[in-house]
Each structure stands twice: as structure tokens, then as C-alpha cells.
Amino acid sequence: MKNSPPSIEANRAARLRRELRNPSLITIAIIVLLVLAIPAAIILPGLISTASTNLAERAEQRRQRVERLLPEAVVLPAQVTPWLFSRIRIMQQATTTSEWFAADFTEGSCNPANLAQFPTGKYTTAIFRACSDLNRIREKYAANCTVESCEVPRTAIIELDGAAIRLVEAFSDANFALPYESLVD
To answer: Do 138 and 110 meet the contact criterion of CB atoms below 8 Å apart?
Structure first.
């Protein structure tokens, strides 16, 4: 019995001692993964919940900011039209990025849900078209308005003028649209 084979437990213990004294690349990788996985398992759930909470708060802040700038409580086309004229004028004379992007023509007064509250007819159609046109123009010429400079091209001014003129024409018989002076010669 002197030559009996070593027990399985002894083999495993000897192999473990050998691996710890002279570890292979696989052993080092396993140890590193365990050392990183344990703190990550502790920290990640809190980090993820904090990040999602912050993102939700940011989205709520943006929604509130949009509501402050463009209240959805506007229920009369006569209240939206002067606002659109002022946005057109600001965009035509924009010298900074914040002036070019000052309004969101898909939210607030131009929100389709808000426009659905208006009585159907040519006034609502004109406002909807103006909002769509202004959003399209803003996106089309966005590259001309960077952080360094904002140069509104003449074609953009002409397109903005066209949107304003279509509004004036639609509201000409309503007697409540602001007079609009074209900037185009």
C-alpha cells in the first residue's frame, strides 16, 4: 500500500498550490475578472438607478422648459399667429445659434395635439403649415448656424418671408393678424 495513488483531493490541492505559485494566463484572467466583478456587482445597480433617475429628471426639466417657453394652453389661432411672426423675425435676423434655434416648432403652440384643439378651417391649416415650414427651414439651414457664427443665407430669409406672407394671406380677413413687413427687397 505504499504505492497507492494519491487521493483526488490531494491532487486538486497540489494543482491549486502549483497554479498559485506559478499562475498561468488563464488563472490571472480569472482572478482579475473576480476582483473586478465583485465591486462592479455592488456598484452598478446603484449607478444605473442614479443614471436613469437623472435622465428622467432631465427629460422632465426639458418638458417644463418647453411648456414655459411655448405654453400648450394657447387655444386661439389669434394667440399663436403673433408668436409665429416674432419667431420668423428672430430667425431672419439671427446672429447666434440660440436665436436660430430659439423655438421648437414641433412642441408647445405648434404641437399637433394643441393644434387639434383649434377649430378646423383655414386659420388652423395656415398655422399648421407655418409650423411645419418653419421647422423644415430651421433644420435645412441649421448647418449655417454654428457655435462660432450664424450667417442666415438669403434663401433662408426668402423662405421665412414666404411662410410669413402665407400666414398674412390666411389671416387677412380676420382683422387680428399683426402687420408683417418683409425683409426681402
So the answer is: no
